[in-house]
Design a protein that fits this description.
Elements (H helix, E strand, L loop, with lengths): L1 H15 L3 H11 L8 H13 L3 H18 L2 H20 L3 H14 L4 H13 L3 H15 L6 H16 L3 H15 L6 H13 L3
Length: about 210
């Protein structure tokens, strides 16, 4: 108890001075055993490490809390789990762990297909998680939703993602056709130089 009290005092002191990293480190020391940590401690540690982009640590605490809430299964735990899973999916996504993020976004999108963020994250996870052909279908859905007389930047981004997916599965002819079609119909991939440079670079690689 004395050690934990000292850790708590240091955690609060560093928190008050705005040193989030050291505050989180002392909070972590205060939790001697992750199995006996309270829900609040696990949540706070996960949030703190997430904010510092220490994704592995954030995932460790969030995942333990997720397992605990699933085991309980009562109404309050299910409500907390819904919020936690959104956070955990985002952490996996930001960490580039697309395979781990994918099951969450598949569930989220199935539950709420009108939420654009879920569709976009699902498309990215499929593309980057080793399922580019499925990612292609979802990016196609996105560009259809965004197609207007004056397309927004995300429309062109979706089209470039489609090109990337086609390139990954070696459907070079279709990828070349999509790039050239975009250039003819819209004068290129919008005003974003990076998108246009990447499209032209892929075109050269494919001999288009």
């Amino acid at each position: 108890p004395e050690f934990q009290d000292a850790c708590r005092e240091l955690m609060v002191a560093f928190q008050d001075t705005g040193n989030v990293a050291k505050s989180a480190a002392w909070q972590k020391k205060m939790v001697l055993n992750i199995d006996t940590a309270s829900d609040v401690q696990l949540e706070q540690l996960g949030q703190s490490f997430w904010g510092q982009k220490q994704y592995d640590e954030a995932i460790r605490f969030f995942a333990r809390l997720e397992k605990r809430l699933k085991t309980r299964g009562d109404a309050d735990s299910r409500k907390k789990l819904s919020v936690l899973e959104e956070n955990l999916a985002t952490v996996y996504f930001e960490a580039g762990q697309f395979v781990d993020a994918l099951p969450y976004y598949e569930r989220f999108y199935k539950r709420d297909p009108e939420k654009f963020l879920y569709l976009r994250r699902l498309a990215e996870c499929l593309e980057e998680g080793g399922r580019p052909e499925e990612g292609l279908k979802h990016w196609d859905m996105i560009q259809d939703k965004l197609r207007t007389a004056d397309p927004k930047p995300l429309f062109f981004e979706a089209r470039l993602h489609m090109v990337r997916c086609l390139f990954k599965v070696k459907k070079y002819r279709q990828a070349i056709e999509l790039i050239k079609q975009t250039q003819v119909l819209y004068g290129g991939f919008g005003s974003d130089k990076k998108l246009n440079d990447e499209a032209n670079g892929l075109l050269r690689k494919m001999g288009g």
